[in-house]
Inverse folding.
């Protein structure tokens, strides 16, 4: 059968094909389910947008216009206090670094308590895992808000928020890495009469350390992203500069800061990718 | 040091000394590398401690306050009054669950709103991503300019955190869930568009060439050549995104963009009592339930083999 252009195919040929191969044409009931699914989807979306008062966009046009024009027309660039902006960006990076580092150290211990092969007492293991679930289940920004309330405005709250939520996730990943190791090396070390500390040091750590390091690097990267918005709730870093200047209606400076942050994050992504490739190799992912 | 040089040496002791020498060299170069790394790491640590003012005395004065705060937000439930309902005068007894969750129906309404926000934002974002992903795939884009523009557009959409979009939109359209929905939808369009276009780039080009062979236009090539191949993956990515969006819609309220986050922000900033834990607990339950439900749905409809 030679391929015909669409325009030369007649209705009778389609009918013939339909008789010969009924399975490839949709039946009425399938056709009806398909279209009713689409109809439900569209109706739901329209209904929920109505519920969310979508008509507000109609009356917002001059506010939006004012906002957009002041975001992209940069005025009085001499008075923007660049030192504050760049030191806040440095503070964001420092928060992400310290938070991830402390979380990695904590996860190094907690991971062994949450792994099946290193923690044979199952109630302890389950308790540790449930606590980690709660640490992970609450968003980093919520932790930020809670710690701001507890220790006051500033980067300390941010470091603690990153530390707590990263501990939850990293401990889980670490414990999974520990569960997936090769048992033989551990048994070999144990057979020489080594104590539990030495078994961990020479049996487990050499196998899991590359994975730990690569995951921590990856989390440093993702923490720099999330640390930029921690400041929106007052937990230090560049987010505080953004919200402060946004509240003061300095939208051009907000745009400038956001562009700077995006460039920084891009550079860190690139750098961390290179480090991972160079020292850990693609294997560990 | 190769095997050949080892073999030419005569006698056992020579081989051993060469081995030892080689080993010493390796250890020395490794040690130098490690020292360099430790030094760099220590420098980074000191610098970040200095920049973020994470001094031990600040930490020491902060830690007791953290425990104190967590003590104040815990509910004080009393075992004997735990299930006591409201009295005849409509007042709940202190120490009972009813007293702890006195605003329960407000929270339920807000959680419902949060789920609706996430669902609508996912649908809108996925629809936008679906339209964007075909011109943004290297193998399907009609020309380079369209490809470049759609790629950059998606990068802008997903590069900026959704809460920043929410902040700007709250200024534009006012406080309420609409700003949150649109903010999450924008971010979703960028993130899903990238994933979708990666799926497209791995799709087989043969059906596309077949459609082109019978004279189909670009739209027909996409509709009949690509869409049937990629639809299952699109669906699973969209479901996965829905989970992420539930988390996002529970926090965009911090800047006034609706959902349970608005109540959470109000409760944490204005009161330090057991209401904080009451709302937090509901948020954790919501996120966990959605995760479990969406995992069930994915494995039921799509099957595990589509996840790599």
């Amino acid at each position: 059968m030679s391929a015909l252009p669409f325009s030369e195919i007649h209705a009778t040929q389609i009918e013939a094909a339909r008789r010969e191969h009924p399975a490839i044409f949709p039946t009425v009931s399938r056709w009806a389910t398909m279209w009713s699914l689409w109809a439900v989807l569209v109706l739901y979306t329209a209904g929920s947008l109505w519920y969310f008062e979508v008509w507000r966009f109609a009356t917002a046009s001059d506010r939006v216009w004012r906002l957009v024009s002041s975001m992209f027309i940069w005025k009085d660039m001499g008075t923007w206090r660049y030192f504050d902006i760049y030191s806040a960006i440095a503070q964001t990076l420092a928060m992400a670094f310290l938070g991830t580092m402390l979380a990695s150290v904590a996860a190094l211990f907690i991971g062994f308590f949450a792994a099946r092969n290193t923690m044979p007492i199952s109630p302890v293991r389950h308790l540790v895992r449930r606590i980690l679930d709660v640490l992970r289940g609450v968003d980093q920004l919520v932790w930020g808000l809670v710690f701001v309330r507890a220790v006051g405005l500033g980067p300390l709250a941010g470091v603690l928020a990153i530390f707590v939520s990263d501990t939850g996730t990293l401990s889980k990943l670490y414990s999974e890495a520990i569960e997936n190791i090769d048992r033989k090396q551990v048994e070999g070390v144990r057979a020489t009469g080594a104590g539990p500390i030495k078994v961990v040091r020479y049996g487990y750590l050499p196998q899991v350390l590359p994975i730990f390091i690569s995951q921590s690097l990856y989390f440093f990267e993702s923490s720099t992203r999330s640390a930029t918005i921690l400041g929106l709730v007052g937990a230090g870093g560049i987010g505080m500069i953004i919200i402060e200047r946004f509240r003061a209606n300095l939208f051009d400076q907000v745009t400038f800061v956001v562009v700077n942050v995006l460039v920084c994050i891009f550079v860190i992504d690139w750098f961390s990718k290179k480090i991972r490739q160079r020292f850990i190799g693609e294997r560990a992912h | 040091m190769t095997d050949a040089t080892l073999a030419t040496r005569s006698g056992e002791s020579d081989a051993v000394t060469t081995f030892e020498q080689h080993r010493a060299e390796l250890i020395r170069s490794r040690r130098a590398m490690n020292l360099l790394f430790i030094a760099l790491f220590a420098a980074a640590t000191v610098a970040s401690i200095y920049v973020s003012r994470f001094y031990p005395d600040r930490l020491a004065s902060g830690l007791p306050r953290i425990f104190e705060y967590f003590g104040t937000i815990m509910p004080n439930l009393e075992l004997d009054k735990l299930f006591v309902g409201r009295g005849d005068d409509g007042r709940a007894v202190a120490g009972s669950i009813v007293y702890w969750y006195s605003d329960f129906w407000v929270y339920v309404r807000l959680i419902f709103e949060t789920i609706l926000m996430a669902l609508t934002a996912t649908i809108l974002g996925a629809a936008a991503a679906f339209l964007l992903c075909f011109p943004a795939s290297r193998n399907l884009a009609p020309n380079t300019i369209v490809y470049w523009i759609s790629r950059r557009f998606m990068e802008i959409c997903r590069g900026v955190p959704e809460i920043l979009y929410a902040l700007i939109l709250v200024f534009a359209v006012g406080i309420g869930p609409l700003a949150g929905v649109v903010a999450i939808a924008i971010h979703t369009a960028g993130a899903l568009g990238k994933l979708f276009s990666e799926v497209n780039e791995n799709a087989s080009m043969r059906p596309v060439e077949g459609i082109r062979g019978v004279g189909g236009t670009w739209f027909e090539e996409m509709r009949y050549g690509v869409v049937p191949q990629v639809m299952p993956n699109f669906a699973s990515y969209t479901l996965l995104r829905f989970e992420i969006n539930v988390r996002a819609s529970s926090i965009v309220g911090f800047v006034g963009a609706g959902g349970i986050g608005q109540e959470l922000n109000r409760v944490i900033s204005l009161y330090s009592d057991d209401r904080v834990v009451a709302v937090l607990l509901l948020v954790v339950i919501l996120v966990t339930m959605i995760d479990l439900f969406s995992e069930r749905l994915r494995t039921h409809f799509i099957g595990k083999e589509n996840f790599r």
Q: What stands out?
A: Chain A touches chain B through 62 residues (CB under 8 Å). The radius of gyration of chain A is 28 Å.
